[in-house]
Amino acid sequence: MKMLINVPETVVADALRGMAAAHPELTVDVDNRVIVRRDAPVAGKVALVSGGGSGHEPLHGGFVGPGMLSAACPGEVFTSPVPDQMLRAAAAVDSGAGVLFIVKNYTGDVLNFDMAAELAEDEGIQIAKVLVNDDVAVTDSLYTAGRRGTGATLFVEKIAGAAAEEGQPLERVEAVARQINESSRSFGVALSAVTTPAKGSPTFDLPPGELELGIGIHGEPGRERRAMMTSREIADFAVHAVLEDLQPRNPVLVLVNGMGATPLLELYGFNAEVQRVLGERGVAVARTLVGNYVTSLDMAGASVTLCQVDEEVLRLWDAPVRTPGLRWGV
Amino acid sequence: MKMLINVPETVVADALRGMAAAHPELTVDVDNRVIVRRDAPVAGKVALVSGGGSGHEPLHGGFVGPGMLSAACPGEVFTSPVPDQMLRAAAAVDSGAGVLFIVKNYTGDVLNFDMAAELAEDEGIQIAKVLVNDDVAVTDSLYTAGRRGTGATLFVEKIAGAAAEEGQPLERVEAVARQINESSRSFGVALSAVTTPAKGSPTFDLPPGELELGIGIHGEPGRERRAMMTSREIADFAVHAVLEDLQPRNPVLVLVNGMGATPLLELYGFNAEVQRVLGERGVAVARTLVGNYVTSLDMAGASVTLCQVDEEVLRLWDAPVRTPGLRWGV
Fold first, then answer.
1. Do A169 and A238 belong together in one domain?
2. Domain range for residue A108?
3. Is residue B326 part of a domain?
4. What angle do CA A106, A110, A111 make, to 5 degrees?
5. With contacts defined as CB-CB under 8 Å, which chain B residues touch A19?
6. Whether A60 is catalytic
7. Does B324 fall in a domain?
8. What's the CATH number where A295 sits?
9. Which Gene3D superfamilies match (chains A, B) (predicted)?
10. Nearest to B295 by CA among B13, B55, B19
11. Catalytic residue ranges of B
12. What is each CA distance from A93 to A21, A38, A320, B11, in whole angstroms?
């Protein structure tokens, strides 16, 4: 598999240098692998820190900025960052109002953020944590005990980020983040396998003419393989899987998320089918976002995330955000 | 090749239905294939209309909105829209201040926009046209006499769009658009071929271990094939090709554009190398944009576009824009 890289060993460092050049509004510490909004710490404001393996861009580094994350820690590709990165990030952004760690539910991330929380508290930084585990496809998988964290991470980071930006205290920001995770569910499909720079060949074998339903964002196995399905059939399957678990009574935010290599033209067409299913099931749609936000390198496919919202959450969703990957209202 | 579609015949219509659902701020006429900003026509404002084959999203439909295009006409995949679409778009957005057609230099687009201009003028709409032909890789190619129009289209649409938004008259907006095209050059590389829905298999054969230098955005041939190169080597080749032709004396805008299937992680790493070459050549960088903006469906690869700017152009670049694909300052 051909890649636009130098050598696998420098992929993350090279990308951080490229981010630094493109985004003077961020402080990118290439050596220590921490991306921080330039004006941090913001006096009186709760800070949000997230992170995880690289390869899911723009998540998380592309979501650093006013109205969303205060800092992000990128690990190696598909590998958790280390506690020292998280501690450094927390120290850089804490204004004294405390720090919320947003942690996708993968074993490495959970352990390392736990350790970083202890270290940070030893240094007098108040830490709260929220675990994102929205993927209904499987319980327990290759890297996870329980459900995986996927597309809902964007909703948690945006909405809790808005609450923090308007000055809500740590316990409220944490409660909002927890509420968003509990109100969100995701389901993804893969049309092709993912290739990591280190391995250089696809991480699993997906034969021509088949797709994998319920895939994660690291190429870990899903629920089942089937003969290739149409956009219409995939939307039926994915949205039903989400609705069965979520059973929303309120309007929903919709994220139709590309895994990386699926053209935007196809994602918009898939969105039309997702909206059709939601309409048939009587689910009202408050807002829709279509694009590549929580990706898996060069994997083809898509995921659907729904988050049921009340008026207060919708207000926070609509609040201004200014990051490389998500931007509106400012 | 697996795709997230229903049938090839409905790919464009399906995508337009999905755009309509995701973007209530746009008026999407699915039957007639015209995407219009909802508040058009804007009294006293020059309107900008572009369009071209589908498969390059977010170009052009994703660039409709305040500060950029007034309307866009998507054709079938890699196929020019028809004059009737362009006429309909012009009629929908003309406030009496005239309409600028922004035309990428492909034979079909040029002929059809010419015909639409005649039809529109017959209906009393004042039309100006600007041709975008920034690709230095080849003169004449599969679909083009002269140079192809690629990444500079984004610069023309954004900067002329800002001039129109602040009320500049048609002759000024046209002059700005022409200046931006003349100040811009691009060069692209492909690491994989592109597969159209209608064909279902790659449009050309690119062996493992080779890349194509100077590729267009439809899989048309480039300058040459070589054994796979590193990000550093590709940046040297592409930036030198652009600089040789442009010889900028002013600072430049940089667009590091993904062709569709290359991960954002790799695009940022490639940007680091592009910035290195520019630094070595003493070219000052005013702004940098990294992402998938002028794509070629599922092709892997990237292009570099440089546009030399003066203070006035930079002011227009920084002016507010609110479209699905490009958004800042509002």
1. no
2. 9-182
3. no
4. 120
5. 268, 271
6. no
7. no
8. 3.30.1180.20
9. Dihydroxyacetone kinase, domain 1, Dihydroxyacetone kinase, domain 2
10. B55
11. 56, 218
12. 21, 10, 20, 46
